[in-house]
Design brief:
29% strand; Umud Fragment, subunit A; alpha+beta; 6 helices; 26% helix
Length: 216
């Protein structure tokens, strides 16, 4: 059994529950270890089974998944129907500026309440990802630093819906309307911002916004 693989799964648990990047010191703290103890265990490939068992007992997590990489459905007792969504940490969908980053490698998982998932109508085969809102151009519909859930399969533009789109100016969250002239209007819900129009060939639809979570 590999120490680093086990601790990678520990990090997944902590990221799900804290929604922030997890480092060795965070895992050590969760296991009741000092940084020196953790470092020594890592160098010896010595897995602290008793500490992991205590951690799992406190949080009602199946130790089988952490130790043996068994089904994610065992993360909580009674096989609770957990729904995980990738939060793309380094993609800032601007709601009022031009920030963007297309590197999809840096992500953490967030857990969505099954009831909220069902309310949004998310199916098992849907491709849902999450990104943070930057700026205030979509207030009061979407507040800055909120997390939006994006259905990557819904790329057909529908007037009045909110989409995440990629343009020459960056990645934006905007309400969409087709312009009679043939362009696409990007509409801000905050009336302090003007509507902009882009040519269809300059716009790539990333997905439709289907829900939002407040700052996490």
């Amino acid at each position: 059994m590999n120490f680093e693989k086990v601790m990678e799964r520990m990090a997944v648990i902590l990221e799900q529950q804290g929604n922030s990047k997890v480092y060795d010191k965070d895992i050590a703290s969760a296991l009741g270890m000092t940084s020196t103890q953790y470092s020594n265990a890592k160098s010896r490939n010595s897995i602290p089974y008793e500490r992991i068992a205590a951690f799992c007992g406190r949080r009602k997590i199946s130790i089988n998944w952490i130790l043996f990489d068994q089904s994610i459905s065992m993360l909580t007792d009674e096989h609770e129907d957990i729904y995980r969504v990738k939060l793309l940490n380094n993609i800032n969908a601007s709601a009022g500026g031009g920030a963007f980053n297309e590197d999809y490698e840096d992500f953490t998982y967030i857990m969505i309440d099954p009831l909220y998932r069902d309310l949004l109508g998310i199916g098992k085969n849907d491709t849902i990802e999450a990104i943070r809102v930057v700026g205030d151009s979509m207030e009061n519909t979407l507040n800055e630093n909120s997390i939006v859930l994006v259905d990557r399969r819904q790329t057909e533009l529908v007037d009045g819906n909110i989409f995440v789109v990629n343009t020459p100016g960056g990645v934006f969250i905007k309400r969409i309307a087709k312009n009679p002239s043939g362009g696409i209007n990007l509409i801000s819900d905050n009336r302090n911002y003007e509507t902009t129009t882009v040519a269809p060939e300059d716009l790539r639809v990333i997905g439709r916004v289907i829900g939002a979570l407040e700052k996490m």
